[in-house]
Hints:
mainly alpha, Rossmann fold, 38% helix, 8% strand, globular
Amino acid sequence: MGDLNIGLHQANLLWFGKSGMKWPAFLNALQYQVLFRRTPFMIIIHLGGNSVAELSQKDLCDKIKTDIKYVRDTLKNTHIVWCDMLPRNSWRNNLYPTPKVLNKKLRRINRTIKQYIQQIESAHCITFKIHESMNELFDEDGVHLSDHGNLLYTQTVKNFIKTVAFV
């Protein structure tokens, strides 16, 4: 999975990840994580890729928007950060002969959610310079990031956190 220590000693960082998690599990997972903690300064959301093949574009976008609105209404002083869902060289449960169709759907979903996020106070977007044709950024399975891809991912997140939290 790569090095998740992004070197921000001024921040109390909690990485919460669950392999194979899909968007419908988001709110329960988030509520469980913040239940016994103080209100977080920032929540970085990198989730949804595993739901792209299973839900329609409209249904997934509507669910993401509804859940983000809930987070905004519940955690009023928390920065909400949307991380683009990453493209893949290979999609599990893909009914199409190539990953092209689902990567195109994913880009449309990312664009829709970014437009929504930009309308919300204290909400931000992180876009990664990762394309499905960049084979060196993916593990052999074509789904997960390689060590090099993880380094690019964590460096992008680290740079973003520094610009928002420590300016």
